[in-house]
Known about the structure:
Elements: H1 6-22, E1 47-48, E2 51-52, H2 65-71, H3 74-87, H4 96-111, E3 115-118, E4 132-136, E5 140-144, H5 150-164, E6 170-174, H6 184-192, E7 200-205, E8 212-216, E9 226-231, H7 238-250, E10 253-256, E11 264-270, E12 276-285, E13 301-302, H8 307-319, H9 337-342, H10 346-359, H11 371-394
Parallel strand pairs: 5-6, 6-9, 9-10, 10-13
Antiparallel strand pairs: 1-2, 3-12, 4-5, 7-8, 7-12, 11-12
Helix pairs in contact: 1-4, 6-7
Amino acid sequence: MKKPPLLAAVLVLALACAQAQQKLPDPVNGAGAKSAAPAKIGDPAVEKSGNATAPAESAPRQLSSHEAADALTEDELRQIVEILRGTYVTPDALNESALARAAMQGLLERLGAGARIFTAAKKADDRDGLFRSEVLGGAVGYLRLGAITQENIAALDAALEGFAAGPPTAMVLDLRATPHSTDFELAAECCRRFSPKGRVLFSIKKPKANDEEILTSRDAPKWRGLLTVLVDGNTAGAGEVIAAVLHTHLRAYVIGQQTKGEAAQFEEVPLAGGRVLRVAVGEVTLPDATPVFPGGLTPDLTVNVPQEKTDEVLQLAMNGPGVAPLVFDKPRARMNEAALVAGTNPELDEVQEIQKRRANGDAPAKPVRDEALQRALDYITSVRIFEAREAAGAGR
């Protein structure tokens, strides 16, 4: 049997993937209605009492490349290719190889995170994967999950046990420093620490029929308080699955930026020239059908911070005394009894010191702040104020 030309094969593949990706009906045979033919003068529908009035016709509109690719049938695709190859002013731009490359370019753009080509096997995420926990302001627990590993899950358990003993009544789970991972079983283990027993957390679906893995919660949660989750543009894979599950089951408030959209199982396939095709082979889906792949998780509150600044505050928090200095201002000097006895004024001394440094060109640098974490604490404070007012109103 004669093999189909390279171009035809690529075009058919591109059309099939475009229709599957966009989930649009076939323009001719699908569920969508056919576009009506324009009305003509003399048509009874538009001619009234002998006074023929033609409806105004809108000017032709140029379709974008995506609109055209979605609307054209397979026959039209082949027809356009033949027309261009026979009439276009630069024939060399439309040879077999050029057209195949153009079709492949459009296909990769449509699939996005689902199919990407790398010069070599993708390296592991080099972000710091260490676990960290602390208490902020005496009442808010902060957990930086880091890498999704058995060791960090054990550290999470220990921290949650400490929080359960008090005093935190709210918690921030920071997934911004969580490297990309496709270990969804460990992601489920993390979710089980928070989700009610017996819930379907998420499932992993593969193209083959009935090939689905369902992961559920098995035990009572280790944390039942108010929960806020931090994500950024690098939160990917298992990390964004955790955020999506907690958002779905616990109504956890998600703050940060749109996640990367890689909530899928991937395979890396070596290509003949040494490059690697990284392709999604299994999609993570949530019980409520919240889409995470390939668009990513949209936060409840978007905090537009450059990724470089986020990386800076995460590094400072790990190398310094913690995250508290990145969210709270240093207490200002205050007049006290000791100062009165000594005849000094700490407030005035501090102001004069700042003015002196500015005069010498040595003004203190503006402190670095973790804006996403600050918004999380603001949210928790607002909820607590609302709850207090509700409780006071109910007690009257």
